[in-house]
Amino acid sequence: MPLTISYVIVGLIAVTANAHYVWKDDHDSTNHHSMFPRMNFPTFPGIPQFNFPSLPAFPMMPSMEFPQPHKGFNGVSVSASSFQGVDKDGKHYRKGGTSILTSEDGVEKEITLENGTPNVVV
């Protein structure tokens, strides 16, 4: 341990003694750059101009025409639902029905059937 302390003390003395020489200004001139020799670099060549060829015209896509819906469109849509539950009196019940939507030449007709309606011909 005493040897370590002596190394630290000697090191601090050496550092503080050398710090004086590092910060000492050798020349008191205002132009500190005059101490260094001037370096003459060769001039760089100019950047050459590149002439790129023009690109050919990009082919354009032809306009697209979408088909219009027919005036005489015919179709049928059928929807059915069914559910059951318990009412306030505790009785079970079933409900539901069917909806039929038809379109003939733009004329729409809707038929709604309650649950249990027999034999419907459209």
Sequence-ordered SSE layout with sheet pairings:
Elements: H1 2-23, E1 74-86, E2 92-104, E3 107-114
Antiparallel strand pairs: 1-2, 2-3
Organism: Pararge aegeria aegeria
Keywords: Signal
Protein name: Jg7414 protein
Question: How would you portray this structure in words?
Answer:
- The chain has 122 residues and is an alpha+beta fold.
- It has a domain at 74-114.
- Helices cover 18% and strands 28% of the residues.
- The chain has a three-stranded antiparallel sheet, with no helix packed on it.
- The chain is elongated.
Question: Can I get a quick summary?
Answer:
By secondary structure, this protein is an alpha+beta fold. The protein has 1 helix and 3 strands. The mean pLDDT is 77.
Oligomer state equals single chain
Strand line-up in the sheet with most strands? 1-2-3
Question: What proportion strand?
Answer: 25-35%
Task: Report the sheet with the most strands, covering strand number, pairing sense and barrel closure.
Answer: 3 strands, antiparallel
Helicity, as a percent range: 10-25%
Termini separation (Å)? 112 Å
Rg, Cα atoms, Å: 50 Å
Organism: Pararge aegeria aegeria
Keywords: Signal
Signal peptide: 1-19
Protein name: Jg7414 protein
